[in-house]
User: Fold this.
Amino acid sequence: MISTLGQTEAKAGHLRRTDRKVPPALRTDGAPSSCRDSPSLTHQADPFASNAELPVYVKIKNRLRWEILTGTYVEGSHLPSAGELGNTYGANKNTILRALRMLRSEGMIDFGRGRGAVVTHSARPVDLADISEQLQAVVNLADASGIPRSMITSAV
Assistant:
């Protein structure tokens, strides 16, 4: 069955679109994003983009959070407007606002009507010694609990 919105298929009495396009900024196939020239989108692996089951607003929240943590957006800088982000990610304004509200609840940004979104959290340098120490504590706890090493390494 062909509709004006694209191909659909009938399944259990419901119509479902089968030709949805993934917004370029959320692509997971390794192709460069044509939406922005940001090196964080085109030259680095995005650790959050691989889970296709996540809702779009969560993917957008994760992408923006990652860009804040990696220094693409620094503390005190303004994020693009909800409309601009919507164009970038191929999502409507309400989806963008939902992602922004999640970032606000995490303390990453502050925003309000007419003020725009301002980054309130800066990228902090990663101390590998601290991470290694914390990871070793988790491994020791898992060992003491009788969890097999194979499960520990696959979880990490």
The longest strand covers residues 6-11. Residues 96 and 104 are 12 Å apart (CA to CA).
